[in-house]
Structure formats: structure tokens, C-alpha cells
TrEMBL record, chain A:
<dbReference type="GO" id="GO:0003824">
    <property type="term" value="F:catalytic activity"/>
</dbReference>
<dbReference type="InterPro" id="IPR058240">
    <property type="entry name" value="rSAM_sf"/>
</dbReference>
<dbReference type="InterPro" id="IPR006638">
    <property type="entry name" value="Elp3/MiaA/NifB-like_rSAM"/>
</dbReference>
<dbReference type="GO" id="GO:0051536">
    <property type="term" value="F:iron-sulfur cluster binding"/>
</dbReference>
<feature type="domain" description="Elp3/MiaA/NifB-like radical SAM core">
    <location>
        <begin position="55"/>
        <end position="293"/>
    </location>
</feature>
<dbReference type="InterPro" id="IPR005909">
    <property type="entry name" value="RaSEA"/>
</dbReference>
<protein>
    <recommendedName>
        <fullName>Elp3/MiaA/NifB-like radical SAM core domain-containing protein</fullName>
    </recommendedName>
</protein>
From TrEMBL, chain B:
<dbReference type="InterPro" id="IPR036511">
    <property type="entry name" value="TGT-like_sf"/>
</dbReference>
<dbReference type="InterPro" id="IPR036974">
    <property type="entry name" value="PUA_sf"/>
</dbReference>
<dbReference type="Pfam" id="PF01702">
    <property type="entry name" value="TGT"/>
</dbReference>
<dbReference type="InterPro" id="IPR038250">
    <property type="entry name" value="TGT_C2_sf"/>
</dbReference>
<dbReference type="InterPro" id="IPR040777">
    <property type="entry name" value="DUF5591"/>
</dbReference>
<keyword id="KW-0819">tRNA processing</keyword>
<comment type="pathway">
    <text>tRNA modification; archaeosine-tRNA biosynthesis.</text>
</comment>
<dbReference type="InterPro" id="IPR015947">
    <property type="entry name" value="PUA-like_sf"/>
</dbReference>
<dbReference type="Pfam" id="PF01472">
    <property type="entry name" value="PUA"/>
</dbReference>
Length: 367, 583
């Protein structure tokens, strides 16, 4: 019989296993995509430190996430939407931007003040988006108020951020931190950077901000958190998010936290668990609870539950999902926790029982 | 080592056991109030708790939910520490192994809810991987409807979580259904929660009722295990949900798992009231032994097939007395019966031949006809009767006709309308006219040999009892050697032989397979406890005669566990000792 050991957790071994499984799962997908079309583009409304703006969200197809090619995150199926093979040329990427501008022109009365660019990888990674393309995109949106670009913390440096602020754009680097708990990020999400790396990236954004002149834009970080990765029970996921929101909010430079419930995407480990009955997306009550209980934080805290009310998205009982979703969206804009006093449902009793009773050896306790 | 869990009684795969906390818990039971969870290692590094003899501590774990890939399970495997307090280790169906804990929690069980084959695979995989005298705990799974069948499968520990949560969802659970609370005008229950006026009864009350109903069902399960009657309940209860019936039937397909855990006899009667009774381990085992171990020593006489009787043993029934009166020991009486198959006269007291009670309507279903007819065919393959007289009513004829073409002798039917009319009995008497009768001595000797065949193995009757004599009266025959030394006694209530030390030696020295328990150097009095067992034959079943031998003693007794459990267990009575001799 072995003795208790602090070495139960082995980074390399767990990562290899997760990657091996995720590679196998991802290999099942067969679609390929046109490198001249963005993965997705849509119009929305967002709360930022500069106010509530109409937003144009662009998911650039940059050839996909390099980490996902190694295996990647256990819940992420976006790589399945990326282009076959490797990198996408400057011309193709600029064609994608053109498609997005056309979409905006057709569907919005006026240009969006906020531009959000995601890549299912790192926009600031020059192996995905070259310096020339990055600068051209900054140029393209120079007339807007604010821009969000997604990146892993490794690639955040003050010079790259400065390329956007110098156009007068308030610039947010969106970082998929997922959780402030390194152990959960590593073992459940299979994402390999530490909270310290996130803090360093925030420091780069602060440096960029300080370097920017008065007529230039501000710089900051928007942290993306993932509620309920696989292997966590509902109460563990809830506690993890409450502490993560607070820890992010306390980091200088991190002015916004977007806390999003995990949804079940195809070709992921989460999907396999879901199919076999070993995973349930979080309750919308859990999302509401995190937002309500962290409303006193300095950072703006928002959430955008994807596929809310469906089996594969955050959901409650089916009766109240739309009402709770509305309250969450309302909170996103107003940051007023009293919005949650307006909604209630019989299923809160079930949710409370799940929070009290669910463990990692009996989940999910309710569908 | 299992220090805090002890199996007290067994009923097939189900067990009545004691979780030996400061205040002991008799299982199968709900253990919510007795469990401390040291926490998940997915979320955080955990301190090993100090533990406490009053609580079952779930050691720090990484639960693997249903659908976890093998690679992930392997690389995140947890090394469980050895602790000196009651502990449970979290495993999954695929990763279950002996970690030295008192109980094992199966993290992927809820994924198999609703799937008979899946749940069977899960329970068997874990049960076979962990020591017999450890508790199997399924958390978040039990409902009033499913818990009896899960306990029957071999699960020991449950909790209230699913029943409670379903109540909060407005589902009113009973042993027969999961009602929508709003559909119920009155409650089919009189528990304290249900005493509330209907209009005031809310979901929290519903959850409280569900927990009460679950607790009541577990009390029934414990009673049934004590009585050796859980299967008889399950055959009815599992009907309340398709997947539970599937689970029961899937388990019946795992004959090895159930047979190993099924006693060779029970004090309790066996209800043959459903079409599933035929697949019980007891029934299958008897048919198998009759057709592979038993040897007919009367097959120089005509075979007389007769219908079974409600009274047991058959020879004490009105009808059989009339048949015997007509036969006058000129034919070998073999009773045909559903669901047992065929019962040669020497085995009429052997479990379960005198312990079953079936529903008799004269209408046989196809499974029964096929089963009895197959057993009869196999029985006749091993014997060589010169004549076959079938003294059976019309509803038995299709069973015989089904195999008539395979038989060497023609079948002579003697029943005109009913087997006990004077015409029928006269036909029977006439059919045997001129046949010679066998003696009482032959009858008694062959009975002893037949019991030995069935109990000990093919050929055992001849190996052990070539030369002997009997005293006392059937069905309590005493078996003695030629010098008058007693070797064994027929146990009338189960139709087995109970050996003396002298009989044990004869058995041990014979070529017949001996069931042996090897013990440490002590002299057992009354019982042999599991820690004292060094080794035991795998084919030992509860109730079997066993030779117990160690450096200090030679004894004969009766198994209280199956062989594998004797070897694996660190607690509990392995065998009761009848006679012992110091060496």
C-alpha cells in the first residue's frame, strides 16, 4: 500500500492523457473551411469600462489553435471550425475582415463602437496573425472607440498593445484564463499556463496603458472564465468561480471579467462525458449566484451563457431559463445584483439540493 | 485489511453486513449521515483527514464520471493511503481495485441508471475487483423503486441524494413509480411526511416522503436478506421498471457470479411465481447437478414419470402415496415439475426440491415446457431404463412428446383422465405387472449415494459409499461403516449429508473432489473466522460441507461463505465447525 503523496498530481502525465484523448476525438471531424471567410461574425451589445456599446464580434479563421492540434482544451470544439492545414495568408485574413465589415454594413444602422476579435487561438501570436496583418487590422478599425483582441498571456506585450492604443482605440486583451485555480486549469481544462502568467500579461497591459499618451487609447485586460469544466461538481464549480472572479478583479489592469458557463461542444471530451451521462452543464442559478455574490468587485463582471436553456448549454428546469437568462443579460449591462431578486422558480430548491449534495463521485445528480 | 465492514448474512449476491462505526450501521442502508467527504483532488490538493471511528471517511479522490476516457483515468489515478479509521476509496467500473479500504464508491454509477446491462457490468466489475468483505457504495443513485434490485445485485451502501433531489423536482417516488406530484389527489403512502394535508404538501415534503419511502424499502430489503427471500421479492418488484427487470435478467445471464454466491440450501421456501424463476441459480444448479452429477442406480427397473405434488416432500403427498401404492417399488419414480425440471425419488428432500411452491394452473408456458423437457432429455441420456412409463396428466404430455423421438424406449402412457382415478392407478399397476421390486436396503443405499453425487460431485456416491450400512429411518438415514462407526447423517430438511470426522476422512481419502479449507495453526471450536483461513477451494458454496485442516486441527463443518470470500475476507465467519480433532 502506498503512502500519501503530494505528487499524486503529475502535470506531464495528465496533460499527455488529455491531449491523447482530445486528438482522438478531434480526428473524428471531417469538415474543412474556406480561409477567405471568417468562422463567425455577429452584432451585439457589450458593457465596457467606457460604457455600453454596440459591438461587432469577429471570430477570425487563422488556421486554428496550435494547442488544439496537440490535443487542447477539454471543452473546446472551436478548432473543428478552423481551416485545414496550417496558416492563413495575409490576403485571406484581410478578406475575412472585409466580409465582417460587409456584414456590419448590412445589419447595423451605424458602425459599432466596439470591435471584438477572437481567433480560436491567439490574435497576438505572430505565427497565427503576422505583424503586417495585425497592424493592418488596427488601421482598419482606427475610427472605432474600443477593440478587444484575444490572446494567451504569453503573447501579450506592451508594444503589440501599443499598436492599437496609438490609433486612439481603447484596447482590451481578452485572455482565456478559465479559472484562477491553476490545478483546475491544468487538470480539468488542460490549459497550460498559470495564474502568474495572467498577472504578468495584465502588467504588460498596464505598462502599455501608462505608455499611451493622453490622446491615445487606454489598455487593459478582460479575463474569460469558464464555469464548470469537466470533473467538477456543481458546488465545486460554483466555489471555483466565486474565488476566481475575486482573484481576477484584484489584479491591476484586469477591468472586466467575463464568466461563462461551459457548454457541450461537438468533438470534445466534455461531449463524450455528456453522452455517457457524466456531465451536465452548469445551472443558470449558479451563474446568477456568482454574479450576484461578486457584484461588489471592482471589475465589471458579465456572463453570456451560450445555448442557455438547452441540454447542452447552461440550464435550469426548462420553465425559468429565459427569465434567468434575461436577468443575467440585464446584470451584464447594469451591474445591479437586485435584478436577480426579480426571478424565482420552484427549481431553485433542486439547485440548492444539488449544491448541497453533488460530489465528483455522484454527478450529475439532476439533469 | 477490512476492519470496519463485516458481512453477516448472504442471500445470493446480496449481503446483510455491518458497517462497524462507533454506532454500527446494518447494511444495505443509507449512509448519508455517516459519511465525511475529504474532497476532490480535481479541485484542490487535500490534507489527509484525521478520521474518526464514528464516520466513514471518503478519502481524497478524483471522481471519474461516466464517459471518462481510459487514458485520463490512468494518468489521474489516485494512490490511496492506508489509514486506521473507517475509509472509502472512490473508484470507477474500469479502475476498481483493492485499495485496502472498507468501502468503495463508484463514481460513474449514475451513468448506468436506466441501463440493465450497463449496471450489471458496473456492479460485477467492481464487486469482482474489491475484496468480498468490503462495502460497495453507489452514491446519488438509489430510489425506492430501484434500491431492492441494486442490493440484490450486490450493492451495500446508498444515500438519499437522488430520492431527495427528485422530490425537489416534484416527483413523488414510490416502490412502483415516479409520479408527478401535481397528478396525485391522494398519496399512496402513510409516512409522516404524507400526513400533511394535500393542499399544504409541497416539494420539500415530497422530498421528505421520497427519503422515507427509500428507507422503508431498505428495511424490507434487509428483512428479505435475513429471510433468504430477496429474489422472491425482486421477481415481482423489478417488474415496476423495465430496466430493473432487464438488470435482474442480465444478472441471471451471469450465472457464475450469482451461483458462486448462492447457498446450496436455504431454510426459506422458494416462490416459483414468474417466468424468471426458471433462471434462478438454485433452479439451474439443481437441474445441472441432476443431469451431470446424479446417477440413476435404479435404471434396471422401469422409469415411472409422475407429476409433482403441492405437498413436499412428494412422498408424503396424497397423490404420490397412491402412485407408490400402485408402483410397489417396481419402478423408479421421477417427478416432473416446473420450474425444477425432474426430481428422482432419492432427491425429493434436496434443496430446492421440497422448498418451492409454484403457481399451478395446468397451463404451461413455452419456456417451462422447453426447460423441463430439456432437463428430462439430458437426464435420460445419462441413464438406461428398459421402459418408460409416463403416469402424467394431459398437460404434461407435450413435455415428453417433444423429446419422444430421441428416446430409446417407447413411452407408455397410463393416465386415462386424471392420475389418481382408479382407472389410471389400475393402468399403472398393470403396466408394472411382472416387474421385480427393489429392496428397502437398495432404496436406502441408493438414496445415500445419490445425495453424495449431487452434493459432492459426479461419481462421489460410488467413491465414498461402496460398502456401508444405514440405520434409523428415511428421511433421517444414518450412514455407518461396516463396523458401525457413523460416517454421516441425512439432513431431512435440505437433503444433504452431514459428515462425522470419520466420514470426513473417508471423503478426504476418496477420489471424489473434497472441498477443503486450510487454516492456521489453531484449533477451531464452533467456528472458523476468515482471518484464520489460509486457503479455500474456489468451488465452496455457502452451506457446503467442508473439511477444515491446519497444523493443529482436523475438522468437518459447514461453509458460511463461498470459497473466494473465505480467502479475500479479513472479517466474518468462514465456516461453522461440527466436529474437530486436535492434531
Amino acid at each position: 500500500m502506498s503512502k500519501p503523496s503530494p505528487e499524486v498530481y503529475e502535470q506531464g502525465k495528465g496533460m499527455d492523457a488529455h491531449n491523447q484523448v482530445m486528438r482522438r476525438i478531434r480526428a473524428e471531424k471531417e469538415e474543412t473551411y474556406d480561409p477567405h471567410e471568417p468562422t463567425r461574425v455577429w452584432l451585439d451589445e457589450d458593457n465596457t469600462p467606457g460604457g455600453v456599446f454596440q459591438s461587432l464580434t469577429i471570430i477570425l479563421n487563422t488556421g486554428g489553435c496550435r494547442w488544439a492540434r496537440a490535443g487542447g482544451c477539454t471543452m473546446c470544439g472551436y478548432v473543428a471550425e478552423s481551416v485545414e492545414g496550417g496558416s492563413v495568408s495575409h490576403e485571406a485574413l484581410m478578406d475575412q475582415i472585409e466580409v465582417c465589415l460587409d456584414h456590419e454594413a448590412e445589419n447595423a444602422d451605424e458602425p459599432s463602437d466596439l470591435i471584438k476579435i477572437y481567433t480560436s487561438g491567439s490574435f497576438l501570436d505572430e505565427r497565427e496573425v503576422g505583424a503586417k496583418t495585425r497592424r493592418a487590422i488596427a488601421e482598419t478599425f482606427a475610427d472605432r472607440e474600443r477593440i478587444v483582441v484575444e490572446s494567451l498571456p504569453d503573447f501579450v506585450d506592451r508594444e503589440k498593445v501599443g499598436e492599437f492604443t496609438r490609433h486612439g482605440l481603447d484596447t482590451d486583451v481578452a485572455i482565456g484564463l478559465e479559472t484562477a485555480t491553476d490545478r483546475v486549469r491544468h487538470d480539468c481544462v488542460n490549459k497550460y499556463f498559470d495564474f502568474a502568467d495572467f498577472e504578468d500579461a495584465c502588467a504588460e497591459a498596464v505598462a502599455a496603458d501608462e505608455a499611451a499618451g493622453d490622446d491615445e487609447g487606454d489598455a487593459g485586460v478582460k479575463a474569460y472564465l469558464l464555469m464548470k469544466p469537466p470533473f467538477l461538481s456543481e458546488p465545486e464549480a460554483l466555489a471555483d468561480m466565486k474565488s476566481s472572479v475575486r482573484r481576477c478583479s484584484a489584479v491591476d489592469g484586469c477591468h472586466t471579467v467575463s464568466m461563462n458557463p461551459c457548454n457541450v461542444q461537438r468533438y470534445t471530451m466534455v461531449d463524450e462525458l455528456f453522452f455517457q451521462g457524466g456531465y451536465r452543464p452548469p445551472w443558470l442559478w449558479s451563474v446568477a449566484d456568482v454574479l450576484e455574490s461578486t457584484a461588489d468587485c471592482d471589475a465589471i463582471v458579465v456572463s453570456d451563457p451560450v445555448g442557455h436553456g438547452s441540454d447542452r448549454g447552461a440550464h435550469n428546469c426548462g420553465e425559468c431559463d429565459d427569465r434567468v437568462q434575461t436577468a443575467i443579460k440585464d446584470f451584464d449591462v447594469r451591474q445591479d445584483p437586485s435584478v436577480f431578486e426579480q426571478v424565482s422558480c420552484d427549481c431553485e430548491l433542486t439547485w440548492a439540493a444539488v449544491i448541497e449534495r453533488e460530489t465528483s463521485y455522484n454527478m450529475p445528480l439532476a439533469r | 485489511m477490512t476492519d470496519y465492514f463485516e458481512v453477516l448474512e448472504r442471500d445470493g449476491a446480496a449481503r446483510l453486513a455491518e458497517l462497524r462505526l462507533t454506532e454500527p450501521v446494518t447494511t444495505p442502508a443509507l449512509v448519508d449521515d455517516h459519511v465525511d467527504d475529504a474532497g476532490s483532488l480535481w479541485r484542490a490538493e487535500r490534507e489527509l483527514p484525521d478520521g474518526d471511528e464514528s464516520r466513514l471517511t471518503v478519502l481524497p479522490h478524483r471522481g471519474l464520471p461516466a464517459g471518462t476516457a481510459d487514458e485520463v483515468a490512468d494518468s489521474f489515478a489516485v494512490d490511496y493511503p492506508t489509514v486506521d479509521y473507517p475509509s472509502a476509496a472512490v473508484v470507477s467500473a474500469d479502475t476498481a481495485a483493492d485499495h485496502g479500504a472498507d468501502a468503495y464508491v463508484v463514481s460513474d454509477a449514475s451513468g448506468s441508471l436506466g441501463h440493465g446491462a450497463g449496471m450489471r457490468d458496473l456492479v460485477l466489475a467492481v464487486r469482482e475487483a474489491i475484496p468480498d468483505d468490503t462495502g460497495l457504495y453507489l452514491s446519488g443513485v438509489a430510489t425506492p423503486r430501484n434500491v431492492a434490485t441494486l442490493a440484490y445485485a450486490g450493492v451495500d451502501l446508498f444515500d438519499t441524494s437522488r430520492a431527495y433531489v427528485r422530490g425537489t423536482e416534484g416527483r413523488y417516488l414510490t416502490t412502483d413509480d415516479a409520479y408527478f406530484l401535481e397528478d396525485l389527489d391522494e398519496f399512496p403512502c402513510a409516512c409522516p411526511a404524507c400526513a400533511k394535508p394535500r393542499e399544504e404538501f409541497g416539494r420539500e415534503d415530497c422530498a421528505a416522503h421520497n427519503v422515507n419511502a427509500l428507507e422503508a424499502e431498505l428495511r424490507r430489503v434487509r428483512r428479505r436478506i435475513r429471510d433468504g427471500r430477496l429474489r422472491d421479492y425482486i421477481e415481482g418488484q423489478a417488474r415496476q421498471d423495465q430496466w430493473l427487470t432487464a438488470l435482474m435478467r442480465e444478472l441471471d445471464q451471469q450465472y457464475g457470479y450469482l451461483e458462486e454466491r448462492t447457498p446450496v440450501y436455504r431454510g426459506a421456501d422458494l416462490d416459483a411465481a414468474t417466468e424468471d424463476t426458471i433462471r434462478r441459480a438454485e433452479i439451474q444448479r439443481f437441474a445441472e447437478r441432476v443431469t451431470t452429477r446424479y446417477r440413476s442406480r435404479f435404471d434396471d427397473h422401469p422409469l415411472v414419470l409422475v407429476p409433482c405434488s403441492a405437498a413436499k416432500p412428494y412422498s408424503e403427498s396424497q397423490s404420490h402415496r397412491q402412485y407408490m401404492d400402485a408402483i410397489q417399488f417396481r419402478g423408479h419414480i421421477v417427478s416432473m415439475t416446473s420450474p425444477i425440471g425432474v426430481v428422482p425419488q432419492e432427491l425429493e428432500t434436496t434443496y430446492p426440491a421440497q422448498h418451492y411452491d409454484s403457481v399451478v394452473t395446468g397451463r404451461w408456458n413455452a419456456d417451462e415446457v422447453e426447460f423441463v423437457s430439456e432437463v428430462l432429455r439430458r437426464y435420460l441420456e445419462r441413464s438406461d431404463y428398459p421402459r418408460i412409463v409416463a403416469h402424467v396428466p394431459d398437460d404434461y404430455r407435450p413435455i415428453i412428446e417433444r423429446i419422444e423421438d430421441d428416446l430409446d424406449a417407447p413411452v407408455e402412457y397410463t393416465v386415462a383422465d386424471h392420475p389418481t382415478t382408479s382407472e389410471s392407478l389400475g393402468n399403472l399397476r398393470d403396466a408394472l405387472a411382472g416387474e421385480s421390486a427393489y429392496s428397502k436396503r437398495e432404496r436406502e443405499h441408493n438414496t445415500v449415494r445419490a445425495l453424495a453425487d449431487v452434493q459432492l460431485g459426479d461419481g462421489a456416491g460410488d467413491e465414498l459409499f461402496e460398502s456401508f450400512r444405514t440405520t434409523s429411518r428415511y428421511p433421517k438415514l444414518q450412514v455407518r461403516d461396516d463396523d458401525g462407526e457413523q460416517l454421516a447423517t441425512q439432513v431431512p430438511s435440505y437433503g444433504t449429508l452431514a459428515f462425522t470426522l470419520e466420514g470426513a476422512r473417508r471423503w478426504d481419502e476418496s477420489d471424489a473432489p473434497t472441498k477443503r479449507v486450510e487454516i492456521d495453526g489453531f484449533v477451531p471450536h464452533g467456528s472458523v473466522l476468515a482471518p484464520g483461513v489460509v486457503d479455500a477451494d474456489e468451488d465452496i458454496r455457502v452451506g457446503d460441507e467442508v473439511v477444515v485442516e491446519g497444523p493443529a486441527a482436523y475438522a468437518i463443518g459447514r461453509a458460511q461463505m463461498h470459497g473466494a470470500a473465505m480467502v479475500e475476507s479479513t472479517r466474518g465467519e468462514a465456516a461453522s465447525v461440527r466436529h474437530v480433532e486436535e492434531m
